[in-house]
Amino acid sequence: MKTFAFGFALAALLPIAGCVDNSGGSNRAVTADNFDFVAMLANYADSIIVPNYESLADTSSLLAAENGSIAAYCSAIGSDNEASARGAAQAAWKTTMDAWQTTTLHELGPIQANNNALRNRISSFARGSSLSTCGVDQAVVLANSNPNFSLSSRSANQRGLGAVEYLLFSDNLEHSCSSQITETTDWNTRPEIERKQLRCAYAQTLAGDINAAAQRVVKAWLIDADNYRSEFINPSSLDTNLKALSDALFYLDTETKDTKLGIPLGINATCSQPSCPEVIESPYAEYSLNNIAQNLRSFLNLLQGGSGLGFDDIIAQAGVAEVTELMRQNTEAAIGEINTMSTSLRQQAEGISNEEAAQTCLTAANTPDSQRSIPACNLYGYLRRVTDTLKVGFVAAVDVDLPDRAQSDND
Amino acid sequence: MNTLRYPIIFSALLTSTAVLAEPAKAPEEVLVTGGRNAILSLGGSAQIIDEAMLEQFDFSDLNQVMSSLPGVYIREEDGYGLRPNIGIRGATSERSQKITIMEDGVLITPAPYSAPAAYYIPNISRMSAVELVKGPAAILHGPHTVGGAINFASRPISDDPLREIDISYGSDNYQKLQFFSSEKIGEYGYAIDLLRFSGDGFKELDGGGDTGFERNDINLKFSWQPEMQGEQSQTFTLKLGYADEDADETYLGLTDSDFSADPTRRYAASQLDHFTSDHSQVHLGHVFDFNDSLSVHSTAYWNQFNRSWNKLDGFIAGIAIRDVLNNPDIFTREIGIIRGEIDSNGSEAETLDVTENAREYGSMGVQTAVKLQLTQGDIEHDIDVGLRLHQDYVERDHSIQGYLMTSGRMTADGQQRGDKLLDEAETDAIAVHIMDTISWRDFKFTVGLRHENISGDADDFLNNTSNSKSQSETLPGIAVFWQYSDTLGLLAGVNRGFSPASPSAGSGVDPELSTNYEYGFRYNSQNLSLEAIGFFSDYENLLGRCRVSDPSCTPGEEFNGGEAEIAGVEIISQWTKELSQTLTGEVSLSYTYTETAFQSDFSSGFSQWGDVESGDELPYIPEQIARLQLGAKATQWEAFIALSYQSEMRDQAGKQAISQVTHTDAYSTVDASGSWFINTQWTVQLSVDNLLDEEAVVSLRPFGARPNKPRTFRLRAKYSF
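ok -> structure tokens follow
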């Protein structure tokens, strides 16, 4: 009996250890417990952001160097090599522009500091802020004639890649200012070769400034320099930086889709005409579609974290991998749409000159897989599909708030 | 029941034992359990480590001592147990802040109410016994009753003249010198206990430097037992103590990869880390025995503790040091600076923050308990009524100094950076308890009640804020013990657990509250003792407390953890066998199994919790702890070997398989000792800690991976005269 009691008592102890209720917690929230956000941000910094900025700095350096392509063009003006040298300079500008467009999908941190000071030195293209060609024309004169000329005193819409594009690509050597502007009063009467040289010289100055800004951005990020990278990866600021990176992706919505496409095509309500081709990005180089394609490629790379941990992994961890897949498919469809276009965006926008064309564009935007009479409108449709998923599925899976600027659509 | 006459403050009504040690030299006048015999047949869970057991290995590390007891969780930190992290039954082990710690029945941690982190714990080398009480037994010993209480019993005044010189020398220049002298002369008695121990440390600082420690401890005890008429007697006891410490200790651990390469490495950035402290105590005790049935035990106490810990706390700005150590491949520059391999560039993100963590603590009060025995027919009452008036305070002044790492050395940047923390908190507390143990036939029923009335004030001088916190809690407890047969007894009990919030806690922070259940049995035969107790602690609110080493919170800030459940089984057993007329063998086993789970979803700023889901396990509580000890005792020698095991501990709350998350190592260590009793005066002892030189990550906090103590030898000679 006593042996039995002993055994019974021992056995009776066992259930107590199993009475802890550890059955809860079935939600699939992605947290630092089940996802390495620090490694993800480090991957973005090391594999994408910093290399992108280094690429920008490298290309802008080639553009601006004393023996670079612009300098070579300036030297060749008036010679037999002028055309080819100009073409080389234009190609270098495009390479730099490609690099810049790649970075615009991760605009955060140092490039935004001081009210976007560095960004605006590289490119100030934005909604409602068109390039001031007259300002550039004035600066061309002043840079040559005024020993106290300072680039930093020029407003943002007279600098950057947009201004260089105007100087390198515009075939119209006449100034764009009104007659009241004294600096350009005698411009049109100057010899063609002088005007080319002055414009080229100022393009060289601007390119130098772009390169300096790009180098500053790189320095700000580099581990052995200002090391913003650590600040970006800092686990203590995880929420803030994840939100900043997520917000940056919405460039695709507010800038690429709306500013670069929706407004020029008249789809966006900001344009009160059938279309507004005058606000196209890179109109002189007719490089708008390339810029958009570059944005899309960069978006896709950022979405997937390159070949490392990225937003797609968070989304997969949240159990909705189809969100990534949907955005990937539509992004690739958009890139494919661009690749098949044979007319520039400017031409397509200018073609939307009446209500009928505008309606055709809207139809294409709403059903991008349908007819392609104005393929840029179909492109807009694919982009909108991507950004619609970005605004709903993405923000829910990544558990971030929608940035203010992407709260509403004025389609 | 004679043993119940002696406790100085509280009776031992709820206690039990499963420890069969040598015939007790236990100083029962300073035991809160009443001693080994008193707890054999009582209704709650308790254990005692007596002087004979302490002598077996002569550990100076309290962690090693306490690890032999079931229900106790240890998180090692510095390898020497200078500032132990001890938890009981799931109560966090973090700086032993959730358990009540006493010396001779008097609260002994620096400020048990205002700042309960135990930066001071008495040196085990001057103790003659350690008691552990849990479950319903714990409500006699507040304020922290969620897990349990530990009482250190200092060496008593010897009836006969006794002098001892105890000298040890060991690995890493470990030295211990202790002198003890005690006797009673007529009505008067005294005890002098002088202790000094030190070591050079087992870690190697990058670039060279000290990593050791030195402790001094002076204790004087005087007694006066005036002659009285009849059966009345009284004893006055005055205890004076002073202890200090000087240690080159740090919070800085290692990255996983550096730990794998050399666990005893210490980074260059910890070269200035230095801890100093001094502790003073005055305890005046009085025991008045009116007769065999009525006695009053009173103590007035005053403790003062000052500490300064100059230590690396990260970078002035930028990445938290813990994040750097967790991600050395990502934060390459920061880890390079910490290692002394990269020079700081002068920015705040690369300037090392070495904070002088200066604090002053005070703790004082009076306590009295009346012990009364009543008999009504075959029912016997043992009634214990006690009152304690207590006050304690903490003053923190943490000032920052910036240092630049240059060629592996740290140089001050010369900037005045002011204070990181400048505050004070104080608490007035009244605690009363009443307990009646009713003995009837083979049953003992214990019914008790504890009430804590706590009023605290806190001032933050940097933010110019003040806070007051009043807490009042009544804590019942009930237990029953049934002596089922001569050898088997059954016990069960339930009590209310409580751990107060600090004075700085906001109105939204609740005290820690739990309902604790336990039941089990105790088997005692001639050769075998076995106690097995299951426990279940149902927390209404678990409380987390931010420490300096926790990122993104203010030291002392508290966090509600909501409901939690902790359950487990504790087993302790000893088997003895007379192998011959002169040789006795013994086998001792201690085992604890624990399950834990939060019961709600929440996000906490307390880094050990983070984003918690219901069902997540609590951090730093091992699922299994075990210790198996084999011993042989002869007339002139004895030898022991002990195998200790502790399973992994998760570093942060969670439910994923522990192998998939950050965790400490499971590890087993073997300790061995052999003693030769040359004659009645001389004893020589050789001890080896961690005989197999097991290397393990025993903690990932405060910052990074921390090693256990490697294999160390100690040779000891003790001379009694």
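Confidence is low (pLDDT under 50) at residues 1-28 of chain B.
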